[in-house]
Write a structure and sequence with these properties.
Layout (H helix, E strand, L loop, with lengths): L2 H10 L13 H4 L8 H6 L23 H5 L6 E7 L4 H10 L5 H6 L6 H10 L3 E4 L4 H7 L3 H13 L8 E3 L11 H7 L4 E3 L7 E9 L3 H12 L4 E9 L4
Protein name: ComF family protein
Family: Belongs to the ComF/GntX family.
Pfam families: DZR_2, Pribosyltran
Amino acid sequence: MSNLFSRFLNNYIPAQCLVCRGLLNQAQSGVANSAICQPCQQALPRWQAAESCPRCARPDTQGHVCGACLRKPPAFDQTLALYLFVEPLQSMIHAAKFARQWAIFPALAGQLDTDLARLNELARLNADCMLPLPLHRQRLRERGFNQSLEIARTFSQLSGIALRRELLLRVRDTEHQSRLSAQARWKNLRGAFACRGNCSGQVIIVVDDVITSGASLQAAAKALKQAGAARVINLVLARTPFK
């Protein structure tokens, strides 16, 4: 783990496990500078690529492309996840987003350092860059931080893939996706993103916290493909079990 990444975690990680609130030290966590103790790390619900749709990461397809992606192929080419969006992870991410306990995001993303299969898969992608799914400036003012950026910073440090946060803009302030039906989510995101620059022929990784319907990541991938991207891969903390 790089010294820069270690210093970053030391500045922001509390002295207690973020899951069980027990006292935390390196011997307990098993990973230097981890904010999650080893028992809690092992209890987190891991996403399994071999059991999931390679396009949208739906986790019940035995590794085959799911029916939804076959009927209407998404603009993105692949989705990778670390976890399943079930308890206790669901409550942790909700607390991080809406109670501003944002140290949870780099702590969870830092578990990529122990996931050799996922790190190797990222290396095989030969990605040119990664970027966070952007928030509209109004939403950013309300929340105070972009969780996707906090996750992307950690993923970039661990993978060595360049972070280009300026490449994609959210040009329209949309309704909260969590308040909408699945069909309304797709309509809500149309034209929400714009690419600032030429990404012709590039392989780009888009980072987000959770994928559910995939509408936000679909809209982002469409904007990047229109700007010339060759491939767009999603890298998310967690996948909701069902669309």
